[in-house]
TrEMBL record:
One of its GO terms (molecular function) is maltose binding. PANTHER family: MALTOSE-BINDING PERIPLASMIC PROTEIN, MALTOSE_MALTODEXTRIN-BINDING PERIPLASMIC PROTEIN. This is Bacterial extracellular solute-binding protein. GO terms for biological process: maltodextrin transmembrane transport; maltose transport. The keyword Transport applies. Residues 1-23 form the signal peptide. Keywords: Signal, Transport. InterPro entries: SBP (IPR006059).
Length: 420
């Protein structure tokens, strides 16, 4: 009998030692990519690899459709049901950090010193999130278009000036070969507006808010530079250069490849479609309207929720996900810009000489993050409405003044969002 007891005890101990997973602490994680099979496969592989790589933590993943994700996080925060690890859109992060939905990310920042600036999520001087990729917009056209219109090819070192850009649109319009000279993607709404269009405003010298204080939009969104931008913006539609807010979504997706537009303002996620259609496709830098060429930066990132009791475990998973191989996997799978130069060399499209390598260079040279403030989530919606209204013929000065009032009222109502 004693022998049997000893044997049973030894078997129990042996089983415990041989099964480290039994000791793993569970971490919950939410992700925005439900419905994208390729993206889901990659993130699930990272989770599986992490869980198998060590015996302390086990990540359990739940994915949401992107359109419902932010609302789900806000509702969970109000109910006290946030997961340990959050996926967050870069410009939204300061709002979530300010609201307590997230806590600083306990990550050795030397691990991300080689990352592009856009994927690094800082708020109030602290790192809250880090992304595995970035996204960039370029002026898309064809070499044959430039040749036919007698236009020089702009470079990062010598982009088109605002005057040259408008001359290019005039030439395309006068040729009669296109339905419109310029496709801005007006069929897309929401975050596309501040991400894609505020860089034009910033190149003119304005901005959505005054970044020196983040306490007002006065002067930034309705000063002389912003008014000049607004008049230019309205002219694109009033003078027939670009389709307006009633653009057919199908034309946005395929109009350039079908030859309806001479130029298109579009992102690297759509680049392969253009390359596959036309082997002389070019991705050109943004034009310089007087204050330097600008494009948007910052995409989805990982961080630790404000209520997580295991920030060390959450950070361990995030650190694990930063391996170059995973950055390359996401790039190869969904076409986005890998966050490091070394991971770019492991990809099909962004390695030196690759068909989309220019986007990495554009991000390094021209990218500007959207205003880093908790008030951005409101300001972005105000900016979107103002630009849509101006495109539809509203008075530029009145519309921008009203937008400033709305943004400033929100900032005041939230006691400056911590900036003062």
């Amino acid at each position: 009998m004693n022998h049997l007891k000893l044997t049973a005890g030894a078997l129990t101990l042996s089983t415990m030692l041989a099964s480290p997973l039994l000791a793993q602490t569970e971490l919950t994680m939410w992700y925005h990519g439900a419905g994208n099979e390729v993206e889901s496969n990659i993130i699930n592989q990272i989770v599986s690899d992490f869980n198998a790589s060590q015996s302390d933590w086990s990540v359990s993943l739940e994915s949401f459709p992107q359109g419902a994700y932010n609302d789900s996080v806000v509702a969970a925060a109000l109910a006290g049901n946030l997961p340990d690890i959050l996926d967050v859109d870069g410009p939204v992060m300061p709002n979530w950090a300010w609201a307590g939905y997230m806590q600083p990310l306990p990550l050795d920042e030397s691990l991300i010193e080689d990352f592009l600036p856009g994927p690094k999520g800082y708020w109030d001087g602290e790192l809250y999130s880090i992304g595995l990729w970035d996204a960039a917009v370029a002026l898309v056209t064809r070499q044959s278009t430039l040749d036919a219109l007698g236009l020089r090819t702009p470079t990062l070192e010598e982009p088109w000036t605002g005057e040259e850009f408008m001359a290019a649109l005039d030439a395309a319009k006068a040729s009669g070969d296109y339905e419109y000279a310029f496709d801005l993607g007006m069929a897309w709404t929401g975050e596309w507006y501040p991400y894609a269009f505020s860089p034009f405003l910033q190149s003119f010298g304005g901005d959505i808010v005054d970044r020196s204080t983040y306490l007002t939009a006065e002067g930034a969104l309705n000063g002389d530079a912003a008014l000049e931008f607004g008049e230019w913006w309205q002219s694109l539609f009033a003078e027939g250069y670009a389709p307006g807010t009633s653009q057919d979504p199908a034309d946005r997706d395929n109009g350039f490849v079908e030859g309806k537009y001479a130029f298109s303002w579009n992102g690297n996620w759509a680049a392969l479609n253009a390359l596959n259609a036309h082997d002389d496709t070019l991705f050109l830098p943004a034009p310089d309207f007087g204050n330097g060429p600008k494009i948007g930066a910052a995409s989805w990132q990982f961080g630790v929720s404000g209520t997580s009791e295991h920030p060390d475990g959450a950070a361990a998973f995030i650190e694990f996900a930063l391996q170059d191989q995973y950055l390359a996997d996401f790039s190869n799978g969904i076409g986005l810009i890998p966050a490091t130069a070394s991971s770019a060399q492991m990809t099909e499209n962004y390695a030196d000489g690759g068909p989309m390598a220019v986007f990495f260079e554009l991000t390094e040279a021209q990218a500007l993050v959207r205003p880093v403030t908790p008030g951005y989530v409101v300001a972005a919606k105000v900016f979107e409405k103002a630009l849509a209204d101006i495109a539809n013929g509203a008075d530029v000065a009145d519309t921008l003044d009203a937008a400033v009032d709305e943004i400033d009222n929100d900032i005041e109502a939230n006691s400056g969002y911590g900036h003062n």
